[in-house]
């Protein structure tokens, strides 16, 4: 018969291993928080996500955003601050998040669903090669910026 782990043992597991919170008998918010602070990607295995747990996860690793069940603008911004690549996991692209992504990585323009002239100009201003991802209707204006 398997012996149930003590809360202290589970806390050690959560703090020591990447995503081994899956082997815990039960997950407490404290244990989950400790796990995602160690490795944000452990969020994938958190059964009951809280804002605090998600925030800690995306601060530790922006790519943990892909596992956030209820994304908010604030969580998306935090993810982008530490990891521009997290843009690919944003479920609802707002103009503000798109601009933030382009300012950090002009090539994020390729992933933007609804490009605007302002976004395209910002991307090309920062990196002229980003013009390869500019939608046709904004090409001419962006080409003038490069010249």
Write out key terms for the chains shown.
7 helices, single chain, 2 domains
Give the SSE layout.
Blueprint: H1 7-16, H2 29-38, H3 51-60, H4 73-82, H5 95-104, H6 117-126, H7 136-146
Describe the structure.
With 147 residues, the protein is mainly α. It folds into two domains: 1-83, no CATH class; 93-147, no CATH class. Helices cover 48% and strands 0% of the residues. The chain has seven helices and no strands. Helix 1 runs parallel beside helix 2, helix 2 (29-38) runs parallel beside helix 3 (51-60) and helix 3 packs parallel to helix 4 (73-82). It is elongated and about 65 Å long.
Could you state the order of secondary-structure elements as H and E? Answer: HHHHHHH
Global structural class? mainly alpha
Helix residue percentage: 40-55%
| Silhouette | elongated
Largest sheet: number of strands, sense, barrel closure? none
Query: Strand share of the residues?
Result: under 5%
Can you tell me the residue ranges where pLDDT is under 50 for at least 5 consecutive residues?
none
Rg over CA atoms, rounded to whole Å, is: 20 Å
Number of helices: 7
Count of distinct strands:
0
Indicate the mean pLDDT: 89
Termini separation:
75 Å
Number of domains: 2
């Amino acid at each position: 018969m398997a012996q149930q782990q003590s809360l202290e043992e589970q806390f050690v597991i959560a703090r020591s291993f990447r995503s081994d919170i899956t082997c815990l008998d039960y997950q407490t918010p404290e244990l989950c928080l400790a796990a995602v602070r160690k490795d944000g990607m452990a969020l994938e295995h958190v059964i009951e996500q809280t804002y605090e747990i998600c925030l800690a996860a995306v601060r530790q690793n922006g790519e943990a955003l892909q596992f956030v069940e209820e994304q908010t603008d604030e969580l998306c911004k935090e993810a982008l601050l530490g990891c521009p690549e997290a843009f690919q996991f944003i479920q609802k692209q707002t103009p503000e998040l798109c601009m933030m992504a382009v300012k950090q990585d002009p090539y994020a323009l390729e992933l933007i669903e609804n490009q605007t002239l302002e976004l395209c100009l910002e991307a090309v201003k920062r990196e002229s090669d980003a013009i390869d991802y500019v939608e046709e209707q904004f090409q001419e204006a962006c080409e003038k910026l490069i010249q």
